[in-house]
Amino acid sequence: SEAPQYENILVSRPDPGVVLVQLNRPKALNALSSALFKELNEALSIADQDDSVGAMVLTGSEKAFAAGADIKEMKDKTFADAYKNKFLESWGEIARLRKPVIAAVSGYALGGGCELALMCDIVLASPTAKFGQPEINLGVIPGGGGSQRLAQVIGKSRTMELVLTGRNITAKEAENWGIVSRVVGEGEGQVVKDAVEMAKVIASKSQVAVQAGKEVVNAAYELTLAEGLRFERRIFHGLFATNDQKEGMAAFAEKRKPNFTHS
Ligand code: CO8
């Protein structure tokens, strides 16, 4: 069947096992409109269900990962409309994908853009990246999970500072605070290159084990420690029923590379 055509995103295959999704509303600094999110959810969901894909990379432009939700689309919205139509509810679908998504952030990741990065599993930043939750300047608060996910990642005082002052932080601060796993070297396109390389590494592993790894790490944000440890152990036990466990450990013993069949 023909691949879907999109207006607000570009979808490519930089490697057989990796799907790259680029937000593509350059004139609006990739402001997140409903139409854009619909396309983004569709493209990522297709990749998530494609057996040949091991990991996804999500990026924006050099100037902006995404400058937030589309303010022009929101400005005349009423409470009744937002409530009845569950405004923003579907925007969290990215956090429910089974396969890993790596955010490659250059430039502005503000408001919904910062929240979108936080929904991804790994965040790589270019030295130009700027993160922030400026909603307070618009008379509102974060609505895409920023207050909750930031509090989990950087703690109360730093989250309060960002949410209540609306100040942006640099890539370096975001790295020190743990929002990003690392800041990559300078240069146009470097963050996407590094993210694709990382996605290729992940795509070379057993998809069953990768999915299990993502699931158990995410459980740490939902469960108590005792429940989480038990859940991890049960999933670990379950992996002994897979061909990839047999192959991975046999390959180690035979001093050769494993040939995972994702089964
Ligand atoms: N929405 C709509 N249009 C935008 C947005 C936005 N968030 N950001 C930038 N644009 C547009 C500008 O209006 C401008 O369009 P035009 O040329 O037609 O006037 C174009 O993009 C370029 O922007 P600027 O001229 O302002 O570019 P600068 O380089 O001067 O400034 C900034 C860049 C600092 C990023 C600036 O554009 C800015 O402050 N943008 C708004 C940032 C913001 O407040 N973001 C938060 C939005 S609220 C939100 O995200 C709620 C979260 C909802 C949950 C989402 C779940 C994932």
UniProtKB/TrEMBL annotation:
Protein name: Probable enoyl-CoA hydratase, mitochondrial
Enzyme Commission numbers on file: 4.2.1.17
Family of the protein in this entry: Belongs to the enoyl-CoA hydratase/isomerase family.
BP GO annotations: fatty acid beta-oxidation
Keyword annotations from UniProtKB, A to Z: Fatty acid metabolism, Lipid metabolism, Lyase
Lyase recorded as keyword: yes
Lyase recorded as keyword: yes
GO cellular component, one term: mitochondrion
InterPro entries: ClpP/crotonase-like_dom_sf, Enoyl-CoA_hyd/isom_CS, Enoyl-CoA_hydra/iso, Enoyl-CoA_hydra_C
A Pfam family matched in the record: ECH_1
Single GO MF annotation: enoyl-CoA hydratase activity
Broadest EC class assigned to this enzyme: lyase
